[in-house]
Amino acid sequence: PLRLTLERVLEGWPDARTDVPALLELWERAVVDEAAMELVAEVRAAGVHCALATNQQDHRRAWMRDHLRHDACFDRVYYSCEIGAAKPEKEFFRHILDDLDLPAAAVGFVDDSPANVQAALDVGLHAVRHDPASGAQKLRNEVWALLTAAT
User: Fold this and answer.
1) HSE of 35 in the Cβ direction (CA atoms, 13 Å)?
2) Which residues contact 74 (CB under 8 A, 6 or more apart)?
3) Which of 4, 55, 68, 133 has the fewest CB atoms within 10 Å, i.e. is most exposed?
4) Residue 148, pLDDT score
5) Is residue 68's pLDDT more than 80?
6) What is the pLDDT of residue 147?
């Protein structure tokens, strides 16, 4: 657990000018891309199953579930801390494919990390790297192109 890890780190750092609650707040900082979340809702409304696959530790996972309510925005949510593997490990993707009971060729994947996209491609998913700075319209185009490729 992140809290225990931070406690251990601070025990070994007696001159630290912070505490565990202040450090945990750092994992509670996120700006939700509302346009991206609207796209998720649009794609789901079109009948496409949407999943979030994210590398997170236990504290951030709880915050994403309880505060951001991400689990309600997607059909499935996969947190690395629950899977026991993280992107770009191939086991991360294989676990999700097994859970979805889908062939890799039927799944599209969007990520901002080239390593994660390459790992998804290596497992057989249709995958594209999205640069968040390129905006919502670019993301929309990338997602619909993936959907076309995966069907």
Assistant:
1) 11
2) 40, 44, 50, 51, 52
3) 133
4) 85
5) yes
6) 84
* Cα distance between residue 118 and residue 90, in whole Å: 10
Length of the chain: 151
Q: Can you give the pTM of this predicted structure?
A: 0.89
The pair of three-digit structure tokens given for residue 61, joined into one six-digit string: 């996972």
SS (H, E, C) the chain: CHHHHHHHHHHCCCCCCCCHHHHHHHCCCCCCCHHHHHHHHHHHHCCCCCEEEECCCHHHHHHHHHHHCHHHHCCEEEEHHHHCCCCCCHHHHHHHHHHHCCCHHHCEEEECCHHHHHHHHHHCCEEEECCHHHCHHHHHHHHHHHHHHHC
User: What does the alpha-carbon distance between residue 26 and residue 107 come to, in Å, rounded to a whole number?
Assistant: 33
First to last CA, the chain: 39
pLDDT of 102 > 80? The answer is yes
Q: Contact at 8 Å (CB) between 129 and 139?
A: no
Average pLDDT along the chain: 94
SS3 track for 28-41: CCCCCCHHHHHHHH
